[in-house]
Design a protein that fits this description.
The protein is α+β, with helices and mostly antiparallel strands. It has a single domain, classed as Aspartate Aminotransferase, domain 1. 32% of the residues lie in helices and 29% in strands. The protein contains four helices and six strands, in the order H-E-E-E-E-H-E-E-H-H. It has a six-stranded antiparallel beta sheet with strand order 1-2-3-4-6-5. A hairpin with a 2-residue loop joins strand 2 (25-30) and strand 3. The longest helix has 18 residues, at 89-106. The protein starts with a helix and ends in an 8-residue tail after the last helix.
Length: 122
């Protein structure tokens, strides 16, 4: 996945917002909460996203995936796809979608309703 493909995919998720921050990283949010970001790793895109506790234990065992710098060191369950082989494009999209869904589920009912995402339940 390229950085442009990452941005296009994240833009397709309902009510996603985009900002550039943290050293020119593409940061994607829902309801003001980050669900995915893309920065650079030695000139290659590095994709970072929230995962379940189980995925946090399993995914970093794969070549090209590691606990997300900064986020994981603070006890958060985030990983970074930073090199090949890593995840396939379909797996990467699925994980980004799951990250989005986890963040939406943690939004207040009021915020989900404001965003038209009240089909999600916490």
């Amino acid at each position: 996945m390229t950085r442009d493909e990452f941005n296009s995919f994240c833009a397709s998720l309902p009510q996603s917002t985009h900002v550039i921050q943290w050293g020119n990283s593409n940061v994607w949010k829902i309801g003001g909460k980050v669900y995915a970001l893309c920065g650079w790793n030695d000139g290659a895109p590095a994709f970072t996203f929230k995962v379940s506790e189980m995925a946090f234990e399993i995914l970093p065992d794969m070549e090209g995936i590691r606990p997300a710098p900064y986020l994981a060191s603070r006890g958060l369950k985030w990983v970074q796809h930073y090199a090949e082989p890593g995840l396939s494009e379909a797996e990467l999209r699925n994980n980004i979608t799951y990250s989005y869904d986890m963040i939406v589920a943690k939004l207040t009912k009021k915020k989900r309703a404001e965003l038209g995402l009240d089909v999600y339940t916490a």
